[in-house]
Amino acid sequence: MSFTHHPTTFLDAEVSVFKNVKVTTPMKTITYRDWVFSTDKDLRYEVEKIRTEKCLKKRQILKRELLCITGSGVIINNRSDNNLKEHNGYILVDIDYKDNRHLKKDFFKLKEKVFSKIDEVCYAGLSVSGQGYYLIIRLENPKRHIQYFHFISNWFKDSEDINIDGSCVNMSRLRLFSIDDNPYINEQAKVLKESLLIEVKKPSIKVENSNTDIDKLVSKIEASGISIAPNYEDYLKLAIVFYNELGEGGRNYFHRVCCLDSKYNSKDCDNLYDDISKRNYTNCTLGTLIFLMQQSNVI
Predict the structure, then answer these.
(1) d(Cα 277, Cα 271) in Å, to the nearest integer?
(2) Rounded distance, CA 237 to CA 168, Å?
(3) Which one-letter DSSP state was computed for residue 4?
(4) In 196-222, which positions are buried (b, 16+ CB within 10 angstroms) versus exposed (e)?
(5) Which segments of the chain are extended strands (E)?
(6) 278: helix, coil or strand?
(7) Given pLDDT bands bounded at 50, 70 and 90, which one contains residue 207?
(8) H helices within 118-181, ranges in order?
(9) Are 120 and 192 in contact (CB under 8 A)?
(10) Which of 186, 92, 217, 198 is nearest to 142 (CA)?
């Protein structure tokens, strides 16, 4: 993966376009400018149809047919983190009402009261459902995309009690077309400094063989973009491994690995980890983690 230096304005950053979420090969390359200011009447009609549909199941079906982009850059061949040819220097994050019901009516004022006050936010607009937001944030060093995601998640939670959708962590994450005729835009947004990541550096545990350093293994998994626990049995093993090796310090590692799976749910992860901590499982160790990585061809 190469890094295309930040353009003068985020609106000139390039992204890949996909026909819908089911298609893995991109149609073309466009800019954010083309995307956020699109006047395509058919696309706008599709979004309005989704927003007025009361049946959740029908809304999900409609969303699966909507045009989408990989917001962090240009993809070659099939969509995956490994096929991100050029990172454009930006990360997109989702903030959904369903994850932030505790904010009540204040949730629908976040664009004006919170996002517009953050210097690093280039764009804040409504999600396709109209019941959430997506933000575009400029990164100083896109090669640390995943670490930035965890920093941003902690930052919003600690400072504003806002929960970010954990499934946004991947560089190849899709962003569905949406409409916001009154978005927040800051073309002079500040870059999110790499030095800030030091503040949330994850602990590492050294063992006899440096090649099996847990921090390095987890970083390798993140770099691959591969879910090494696609089923519940492996998911359970991961929780046991991290708790056995690190205790409560393994929780963040557990999230970092699990969020690579499309079924990831942060609350489910925490609930399972809490349950594991109350039991006396000893059957999964560091070797189990390495086996799961080998099984998924990560190493």
Answers:
(1) 10
(2) 24
(3) P
(4) ebeebeeeeeeeeeeeeebeebbbebb
(5) 2-3, 14-18, 28-31, 68-70, 73-75, 84-87, 90-96, 121-126, 132-138, 174-176, 184-185
(6) coil
(7) very low
(8) 145-160
(9) yes
(10) 92
Tokens of 109: 């004022």
Residue with tokens 């995309």: 145
φ/ψ of 73, rounded to 5, equals 155, -165
Alpha-carbon distances of 47 from 175, 176, 184, rounded to whole Å: 13, 10, 19
Contact 85/74 with Cβ under 8 angstroms?
Answer: yes
pLDDT in tens, 76-134: 888 888 889 889 999 999 999 999 999 999 999 999 999 999 999 999 999 999 999 99
Tracing tokens 């492996």 back to the chain, one arrives at 234
**What does each C-alpha distance from 254 to 129, 179, 217, 265, 282 come to in angstroms?**
30, 35, 12, 12, 17
Tell me which residue has tokens 């280039």.
122
- CA–CA dist 37, 212 (Å, integer): 48
* Cα(229)–Cα(231) distance, integer angstroms: 6
23-57: b (≥16 Cβ within 10 Å) or e = eeebeebebbebbbeeeeeeeeebbeebbebeeee
Q: Write the DSSP string, 113-124.
A: HTGGG-TTEEEE
Across 143-157, 197-211, 246-260, least confident range: 197-211
Amino acid (1-letter code) at residue 197: L
CA dihedral 179, 184, 187, 192 (to 10 degrees): -110
Torsion of CA 215, 146, 296, 266, to 10 degrees: 90
Whole-angstrom Cα distance, residue 135 to residue 291?
A: 37
Residue written as token pair 């100083």? 140
